[in-house]
Amino acid sequence: MSEDTVVVWDEALLAYDMGDHPLDPVRVELTVALAGELGVLGRPGVRLVRPEPADDALLTRVHDPRYLDAVRVAPRDPLFAGFGLGTSDNPVFDGMHESSALVAGATVAAAEAVWRGEARRAVNVAGGLHHAMPARAAGFCVYNDPAVAIARLLDLGAQRIAYVDVDVHHGDGVQAVFWDDPRVLTVSLHETPLALFPGTGFPDETGGPGAQGTAVNVPLPPGVDDAGWLRAFHAVVPSVLRAFRPQLLVTQCGADGHRLDPLADLHLSVDGQRATYLALRALADELCEGRWVATGGGGYALVEVVPRAWTHLLAVATGGPIDPATLTPPGWRALAAARRPGREVPLRMTDDADPAFAPWQPTGEPSSVDRAIAATRKAVFPLLGLDPHDPRD
């Protein structure tokens, strides 16, 4: 296996642009610019790969052909309605099929490079459109690139793929696609569906017939900070991954759990997100011989958060993590200020937060986070042969 890291990138990925909309491609542009100026993309062993659009044969592994037709036709039909398109969440835009297929193709290229041993890790920060359903756009997502990439891995012979979603929203589309497939473990940590879109991701969602235990959901209460998030992550994710024994890890690394994100209510810092990426890499190294495919996802603090969070992700994937005290380069600050005048441009790669946490224990007075952990462990751990009450599991 090559020790290289593939970063799939082309400026054409910025064409996934819904206009005056929270999912603004400037966040991806500023991520790549920041990673470039900090030298992350020029590290030894880092290969930039230009993607090709996913063709219909790939897309229909997940999506209904009639839905593909609708995505193609909608921009040309001012009266088009249906398939979740043309809403405020999922507005129709020119080149919608082509740009969406390119995002999917980029994540497929990342997955193929890792599976075939051409790279140990691969990243597509423009990907992570995890809400798209087989026949419906949802949650700013047209085609579900993580699901398409996982389906491609299964076609290439993979038998056990783990998908871990750390976006603030439930990874509902990926879960739905593989609900009945015991070869795919989907794990999602997210803000409780009682408070946030898409209204799914409860602990008792554990997989369909013949695949019980392959859907794992950790819904967290609003206001959770780094300590609570990391406590929940480490109380659930390592255990279920070790029980499943994946051959490859796919992650969706939405940055919208940050305290500055305008669309959600968790209180993570960039430092806590960086700690999450380090934990994911360690699990890939422990369980999958390092095979890790990472995507972006949500994140709507376009200047203040996303570029720093995903630059940390790129750094963790391509070699050594960036020191949180690192200054953001002046050239990048100027670009960010020019792209989004009036936004506060961060001066350093840290929020000065300490991402320390106390490991979960099944004793004492439970907090709201502990109750969420216990509910998830009770629902899914026995299905995987684990003891929900034993902190060693």
UniProtKB/TrEMBL annotation:
<dbReference type="InterPro" id="IPR037138">
    <property type="entry name" value="His_deacetylse_dom_sf"/>
</dbReference>
<keyword id="KW-0378">Hydrolase</keyword>
<protein>
    <recommendedName>
        <fullName>Acetoin utilization protein AcuC</fullName>
    </recommendedName>
</protein>
<comment type="similarity">
    <text>Belongs to the histone deacetylase family.</text>
</comment>
<dbReference type="InterPro" id="IPR023801">
    <property type="entry name" value="His_deacetylse_dom"/>
</dbReference>
<dbReference type="Pfam" id="PF00850">
    <property type="entry name" value="Hist_deacetyl"/>
</dbReference>
<feature type="domain" description="Histone deacetylase">
    <location>
        <begin position="21"/>
        <end position="315"/>
    </location>
</feature>
<comment type="pathway">
    <text>Ketone degradation; acetoin degradation.</text>
</comment>
<keyword id="KW-0006">Acetoin catabolism</keyword>
<dbReference type="InterPro" id="IPR003084">
    <property type="entry name" value="HDAC_I/II"/>
</dbReference>
<dbReference type="InterPro" id="IPR023696">
    <property type="entry name" value="Ureohydrolase_dom_sf"/>
</dbReference>
<dbReference type="InterPro" id="IPR003085">
    <property type="entry name" value="AcuC"/>
</dbReference>
<dbReference type="InterPro" id="IPR000286">
    <property type="entry name" value="HDACs"/>
</dbReference>
